[in-house]
Amino acid sequence: MAITEEFLKDIHPCDEGYQWWLNHGRPADSQATLETLIADEQEDWANWLIVRLMNHKQKIAYAIYAAEQVISIYKLKYSKDDRPQKAIDAAKKCLSDTSTKNKDAAYAAAAAAYAAAYAATDAAKKEMLIKIIKHGMSLLTT
């Protein structure tokens, strides 16, 4: 998907992110923009942008992948809480059956990923987020 001024206005980026785009020559190619964001250590912005480039099914796959990357961190801290794993499993079902129940579980998987990532160290978070974004970039090409 091309990144245009109109597209950005429709998705309402923060002023700082919009200025970043302007200052980097208004890159139109989404993959190049995401790579540049990562190179500039703007992983949070890359993550914010990537989900706005995805269709619904890609967002679910992205949430599942992200949750699977961080579930072990969560389990270390909350070993008896199986809700995140159940959310991941239900989100996987949502890929083939988009019932409301499964959609809710997909969102829960994303929330579980966020909670687990929050518990990680800063260095681990950055490494993990880059890995997750790179996977998301591959989803955009499917």
List the topology elements.
Blueprint: H1 5-11, H2 15-23, H3 30-39, H4 43-53, H5 56-77, H6 83-94, H7 100-119, H8 122-140
Helix pairs in contact: 3-4, 4-8, 5-6, 5-7, 5-8, 6-7
Overview of the structural elements:
The chain has 142 residues and is mainly α. It folds into 2 domains: 5-53, no CATH class; 56-140, no CATH class. The protein contains 8 helices and no strands. The mean pLDDT is 85.
Rg over CA atoms, rounded to whole Å, is 16 Å
- Based on Cα principal axes, name the global outline: globular
Helix content: over 70%
What's the number of domains? 2
Largest sheet: none
Q: Strand-and-helix sequence, N→C? A: HHHHHHHH
Number of strands: 0
What structural category characterises the helix and strand content?
mainly alpha
Strand content: under 5%
- Could you name the ranges where pLDDT drops below 50 across 5 or more consecutive residues? none
Total helices: the number is 8
Mean pLDDT rating: 85
Q: Distance between termini?
A: 12 Å
Can you describe this structure in just a few lines?
The chain is mostly helical and 142 residues long. The protein is built from eight helices and no strands.
Summary tags:
single chain, globular, 2 domains, mainly alpha
